[in-house]
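Entry 14. Ran structure prediction on the chain below.
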Amino acid sequence: MVKQKAIAQIYSDWEESYNKVSRLLQAMQSCCPEIICDFRVVPYYDGYLVVRDCSKFDKVFWAFSAYVEAFKYYKPFVSVDDTYLYGKYGGVFLIRVAQDSNSDILPLAFAIVESETTESWSFFLTKLR
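Output, structure tokens:
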């Protein structure tokens, strides 16, 4: 408990961190307008009632257009992977990468989704067509 309170004091708590995601993406886009991102929320329900002026994180996608542009000079092969996020809220972190002829890896796109579903993978894989 003491460790969790210390971490919350230094880095803020989980709720505050998730609330900062949309502002972080807006700041990134204001500095670098070529960043591609999509942040989605869903209505928050308390039982069967929608809580007014409250939403729940659903998924986020981001990619740097410079990396997408660099992909033109890489092997025409893309690899995707995922890893589960552990902690209070969980989720799945998705990444799409390419590899050049020297076997160097270029990260192309990233996403954090609620769970590994067909809809989540579709959201992630259709963003950079």
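The longest strand covers residues 49-64. Will compare against last week's run tomorrow.
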